[in-house]
């Protein structure tokens, strides 16, 4: 029996509720799949602010570094709007990404077969949709300096943020995209706004050069971010892998996941560089947020969190078979007709968080 | 008979072709509506590069200043990719916006009744959709300094752009949004990314203060840009007026127009400040781009350009009645079943650019 160390960070809103359902899958695995998890749990976001006065403690960052992988819920809580920009709940995820150098955020946008009718798009436009967005997550305007709000002599205030991308930052995330594409549809679309931004111009150049040098077998195309937003609505199935910067990736990946009608079902992985000893920091989280409006009602969909755990098994623990089992169990549960309230798809029964989690374990 | 001075800038790709159809509407107006247009035409974008070696001459900017309004086609031509960032065709529109201080870009996203089936979204999600996006267009990351690409000592290159928004810049565009909302559904949604960017934080604060001070009768909400991208897909009819910065506005307005399935039919207006003498610089252009792939084939849809002219009549010449006539004629032509190839909607006849333009004049 192998033992793996996980850091579990449920966070705010529905985070703790959906994380409880993952615990059921974890104990099923320990019972049947010859693996032991050494799990540490800690507070982040508003939950950490309430107890420790900070959205994330250095100690938690250290634990994240020491773990084999981090399973993250979600952060964000309107009740903490008053604490100020530097201590807002979102700092927890931003700091984890930057401190652990988690630079490649993998966001699949997939239409589940049983839920082809859940999308607001016509079924013939989205059936079978399977896009992988690779979003850069430690650079760009999220982290560039200078930044802040300054007051000029005449009382006018200026808000400033800086978008910065360097050649190595662009190269390493593009490399992840090309590697993924080789295992999928072999096509990468690189997205920037090179007709307006020099950082986008550099992005396009670096991706083009890397492609010519190392990935000539992959089909590469380039698209402006505004056009990409349109094309995702017009004909989303034209895409295989999309690679883009932090800010465009934020909008485009949320847009792409909403196309599937299955926002409550989509996981993500955020990967760091591979270290000399082969270790790779990684964090797994649902695409959805903390959904404070439904927190505590027992209605949240736990599937995105469960599928994030499946991604963790696949990418961090090299247990693709176990991931397959979980993904198949989720598909079975959906096919059997269970639906949490967020799923806009006809089904046989509306169920809550716990019932959905139990059903997955049952299907396993 | 009044005389009005227009500067017509067809630009690249399909620009000149669709502009030719506007000329038909213009001469119909001169024949029947007691108005004379003094029209100057000039080159911009790749068309100007080819003749003058620059995407826009100072002389053209001066003419734009002197005109009652500017009717713009579109710029952008992949054949001019080699000229370098400072001379690319897009500089034409960016310079017109900044030199004339055209800070408020009004982009309606409307579903035409006859084309409710043209959207990739389900008809029940988009029927009757009528959103007005107000996008700031002379500030933000499009124009902020410092910007550029620099090479560091170790050979690494860095691409840099700067997002800057000041209190007065935010206030004046928010004011346009609130004023418009009062004539429509009385709701404004302000969109930024205040959980990540200080410029977004300032944006939100300024809009909130202005609302409390001067527009308490309008319903104001705030939304993060990534959530807005999702909500536009999930339930676009929740929006009335959206106000946002330059970059988010670029993506979100293209997304919103694609929801309607009528990209080739959507116009836009970009307005400057009202001067002491009551004059207001303004530019009208279709949402769609230069579409180099279909340029010269006679297949382009001229309706967005014609409707941009209608917007010009309404906003710059105070001739709302004439604008109504043109908009009604366009609706009639669509109802009669004519369709250019871009329209994904069942119709009676597929027609080209000129036939569509003639049909509009016929309907008038
Ligand atoms: C919570 C927030 C800081 C975060 C982001 O903007 O990256 C979220 O929207 C996401 O996409 O993971
Ligand atoms: C042509 C380009 C510079 C422009 C922009 O990004 O503003 C266009 O996409 C638009 O939206 O008008």
Describe this structure in words.
Two copies of one chain form a homodimer. With 364 residues, chain A is α/β, with parallel strands linked by helices. Chain A has two domains: 1-124 and 260-364, 3-Layer(aba) Sandwich (Isopropylmalate Dehydrogenase), CATH 3.40.718.10; 130-258, Isopropylmalate Dehydrogenase (3-Layer(aba) Sandwich). Helices cover 40% and strands 25% of the residues of chain A. The first copy, chain A, has twelve helices and 14 strands. Chain A has helices spanning 15-32, 46-52, 58-66, 91-99, 123-126, 167-182, 198-214, 225-234, 246-259, 303-315, 320-335, 353-363; strands spanning 2-11, 35-41, 69-74, 104-110, 130-136, 144-151, 157-166, 187-192, 219-224, 241-244, 267-274, 280-286, 338-339, 349-350. The longest helix of chain A is centred in the N-terminal third of the chain and has 18 residues, at 15-32. The two termini of chain A are 20 Å apart. Chains A and B meet through strand 6, strand 7, helix 7, helix 8 and helix 9 of A and strand 6, strand 7, helix 7, helix 8 and helix 9 of B. Strand 7 of chain A pairs antiparallel with strand 7 of chain B. The complex binds 3-isopropylmalic acid (2 copies). One 3-isopropylmalic acid (IPM) sits between chains A (76, 90, 93-94, 250) and B (195-196, 226). Chains A, B: Pathway: Amino-acid biosynthesis; L-leucine biosynthesis; L-leucine from 3-methyl-2-oxobutanoate: step 3/4. Chains A, B: Residues 5-360 form the Isopropylmalate dehydrogenase-like domain.
